């Protein structure tokens, strides 16, 4: 599962493209039309997401960073000496740096991500900064399988790190499945889990409808990616970005809304999309402290301390595996 060569990265990309084609086709044929948000993250999508994290309205990244910075010493003491950090979906290596700085002799860092090139670049940068750390990037879809190398001899705890509230992009079923699998592979260690909290819908609405339109570009990139990789021929001008808070379900929903009746001819098939019909591209669930602790408990974790910002916007949970 470790991808070192350009050839292997190319194979991983081809495999992902064929899943994308099959899932997009299934989405276009179903009602309602839904596709996994994991397809946002090609090279361009990952860069757009990095820009979202810098937006004034998008509070989760900077709030979580501040929580980690404020409590890094305490978190590191829970980790113990020579711990190994496994990061699921290693987008911004800025967050793990805060942990590595505070940890006692971190032994190994295993960032797992689906976006191979982005990951390789970020991991190489980190390795340069921490020459004594064993950095091993793993290109994989951690929602499908969690295969990890054996712990290093003499290594301390294995601590999973899942920041950014990516857990909120899973369906409740996927979240339960991911947590149960993580609890198994981290047994004896712990999971450090970041989650966005239920809050004033106006704050949430602004975070997903930024004034610069970066989130809209990120959403539309799903169709742009399909055009680039699969030759779908979507006209991006014929779709609106829509993001709103669904309070009963405690989630932001992102959709691409068709501006008119249109027909997409692709791969010998014809797909009709009516005016106002949507492709549902993402859910971003928001959590209460108790709700998340209960979910983690059901998955086999023993909930431990929780750190939050003063505004109760974001929380970071220590979960014993
Ligand atoms: C990665 N994930 C936690 C982000 C979120 O907030 O759900 C993705 C995102 N979608 C729109 N803006 C950011």
Automatic annotation (TrEMBL):
Coiled coil: none
Chain ranges of the Histidine-specific methyltransferase SAM-dependent domain: 21-320
Keywords: Methyltransferase, Transferase
Superkingdom of this protein's organism: Bacteria
MF terms in GO: methyltransferase activity
GO terms for biological process, alphabetical: methylation
Protein name as it appears in the record: Methyltransferase
Species in which this protein is naturally found: Ramlibacter tataouinensis
Source species taxonomy: Bacteria, Pseudomonadati, Pseudomonadota, Betaproteobacteria, Burkholderiales
């Amino acid at each position: 599962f470790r991808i070192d060569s350009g050839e292997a990265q190319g194979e991983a990309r081809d495999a992902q493209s064929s899943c994308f084609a099959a899932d997009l086709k299934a989405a276009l044929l179903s009602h309602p039309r839904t596709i996994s948000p994991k397809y946002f993250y090609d090279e361009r999508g990952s860069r757009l997401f990095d820009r979202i994290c810098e937006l004034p309205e998008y509070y989760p990244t900077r709030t979580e960073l501040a929580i980690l910075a404020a409590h890094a010493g305490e978190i590191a003491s829970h980790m113990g000496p020579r711990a190994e950090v496994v990061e699921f979906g290693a987008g911004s290596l800025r967050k793990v740096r805060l942990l590595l700085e505070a940890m006692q002799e971190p032994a190994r860092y295993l960032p797992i991500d689906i976006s191979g090139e982005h990951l390789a670049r970020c991991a190489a940068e980190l390795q340069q900064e921490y020459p004594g750390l064993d950095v091993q990037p793993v290109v994989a879809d951690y929602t499908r399988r969690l295969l990890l190398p054996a712990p290093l001899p003499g290594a301390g705890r294995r601590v999973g790190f899942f920041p950014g509230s990516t857990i909120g992009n899973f369906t409740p079923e996927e979240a339960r499945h991911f947590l149960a699998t993580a609890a198994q592979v981290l047994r004896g260690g712990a999971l450090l889990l970041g989650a966005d909290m239920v809050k004033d819908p106006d704050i949430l609405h602004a975070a997903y409808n930024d004034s610069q339109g970066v989130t809209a570009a990120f959403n539309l990139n799903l169709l742009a990616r399909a055009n680039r990789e699969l030759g779908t021929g979507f006209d991006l001008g014929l779709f609106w970005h829509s993001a709103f808070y669904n309070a009963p379900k405690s989630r932001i929903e992102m959709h691409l809304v068709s501006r008119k009746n249109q027909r997409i001819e692709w791969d010998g098939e014809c797909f009709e999309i009516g005016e106002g019909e949507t492709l549902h591209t993402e859910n971003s669930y928001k959590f209460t402290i108790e709700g998340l602790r209960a979910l983690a408990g059901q998955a086999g974790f023993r909930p431990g301390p929780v750190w939050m910002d003063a505004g109760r916007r974001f929380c970071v949970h220590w979960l014993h595996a």
